[in-house]
Design a protein that fits this description.
Blueprint: H1 10-20, E1 28-31, E2 35-40, E3 49-54, H2 73-83
Antiparallel strand pairs: 1-2, 2-3
């Protein structure tokens, strides 16, 4: 038997970061046929928090043939990081 795991839900993880970064409590909601996005704004220091929920997603990297979706994960990640550079703290 391996070590005991304790996993945090996506909702709890997002709530942690929204509180830590002092973001607005209400997200901006967007939806496409493949992704639901909750984006939290007005975070301290220009940081941001976003949750991308892939509809019918599987435990595989999005956008590859085996994933059966066309979600461009690398582009999404890069766009988010470029829009939220590491703040000086």
């Amino acid at each position: 038997m391996g070590p005991h795991r304790t996993d945090t839900s996506a909702a709890d993880t997002i709530a942690f970061w929204v509180k830590k970064e002092r973001c607005s409590a209400t997200p901006r909601y967007q939806e496409t046929k493949e992704v639901q996005i909750d984006s939290y704004s007005r975070c301290r220091g220009g940081t941001g928090v976003a949750l991308y929920a892939i509809q019918g997603g599987r435990h595989i990297w999005p956008g590859v043939p085996m994933s059966h979706n066309h979600v461009p994960a690398m582009e999404i990640i890069w766009e988010f990081v470029a829009q939220h550079p590491k703040p000086d703290r």
